[in-house]
């Protein structure tokens, strides 16, 4: 218990008592980028789902959730309290009778998608940007409600993405700035290790929090959000405008410490 208390002091973990739902970012918070949940995190999530609801908001598509959450059991009671808001909250999935059902989707038009593709082509020229010599899959992926650039390709291994960020992240930021100038009517966010997410204006993780309130009937005051990019300019930062209580973590290991603290509190 002393270790958990010390962690709580360092990370300023708020009380979970009185909250009805925990809301999480995914990559860098629950798992490493596009990687499966490990067994310890899965066990902590199962224990939380015994007690209260969990929602996850991420820039990733729904198929990433299915891959990254394979370690969870398929307990119907647990799944009824687990809610997914992929592509920055522009879609919502919940489990009904053990099947994942899409509740809504804020689809982009083909004209909007084309405008975004064209903006990337022009931005490449504007800053003389070139893809890495080796890429793994599509660079700009159409996720229906969101377009996502991944510098090394959508299926790049974690170690490749980490190496790219360490060596070239300034180029990704420059590319995002160039795209932002060409798309003033869109949101341009820089999450994770190699990505740039493009959504309609006003769609960000704050929008996701508002959708949770709307569709689950849970007030913001009864939520707490955990993310690794709550700093100014980070893709989790927009949740702050909603007034939701937040916990900033640096990686999944810190998230585990937060969950252990809350479980100890919930168990009295």
End-to-end separation in angstroms reads: 12 Å
User: What would CATH call the class of the largest domain?
Assistant: Alpha Beta
Low-confidence stretches: 1-6
Count of DSSP strands: 11
Please name the fourth-level CATH homologous superfamily of the largest domain.
HAD superfamily/HAD-like
Q: Numbering strands along the chain, what is their spatial order in the largest sheet?
A: 5-4-3-2-1-10-11
Q: What's the helix count?
A: 9
Determine the CATH topology of the largest domain: Rossmann fold
The helicity comes to 25-40%
Order of helices and strands: HEHEHHEHEEHEEHEEHEEH
How many domains, as an integer?
2
Mean pLDDT: 92
Structural class: alpha/beta
Strand content: 15-25%
CATH architectural arrangement of the largest domain: 3-Layer(aba) Sandwich
């Amino acid at each position: 218990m002393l270790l958990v208390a010390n962690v709580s002091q360092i990370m300023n973990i708020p009380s979970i008592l009185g909250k009805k739902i925990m809301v999480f970012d995914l990559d860098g918070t629950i798992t490493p980028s596009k990687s499966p949940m490990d067994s310890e995190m899965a066990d902590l999530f199962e224990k939380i789902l015994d007690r209260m609801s969990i929602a996850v908001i991420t820039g990733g598509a729904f198929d990433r959730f299915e891959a990254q959450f394979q370690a969870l059991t398929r307990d119907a009671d647990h799944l009824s309290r687990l809610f997914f808001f992929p592509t920055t909250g522009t879609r919502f999935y919940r489990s009904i009778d053990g099947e994942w059902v899409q509740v809504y989707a804020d689809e982009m038009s083909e004209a909007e998608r084309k405008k975004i593709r064209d903006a990337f082509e022009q931005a490449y020229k504007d800053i003389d940007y070139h893809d890495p010599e080796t890429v793994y899959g599509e660079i700009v992926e159409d996720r229906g409600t969101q377009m996502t650039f991944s510098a090394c390709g959508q299926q790049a291994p974690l170690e490749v993405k980490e190496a790219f960020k360490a060596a070239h992240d300034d180029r990704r930021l420059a590319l995002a700035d160039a795209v932002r100038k060409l798309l003033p009517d869109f949101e341009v966010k820089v999450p994770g290790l190699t990505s740039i997410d493009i959504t309609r204006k006003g769609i960000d993780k704050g929008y996701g929090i508002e959708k949770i309130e709307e569709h689950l009937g849970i007030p913001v005051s009864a939520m707490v959000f955990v993310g690794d990019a709550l700093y100014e300019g980070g893709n989790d930062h927009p949740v702050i405008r909603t007034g939701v209580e937040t916990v900033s973590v640096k990686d999944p290991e810190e998230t585990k410490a937060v969950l252990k603290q809350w479980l100890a509190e919930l168990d009295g």
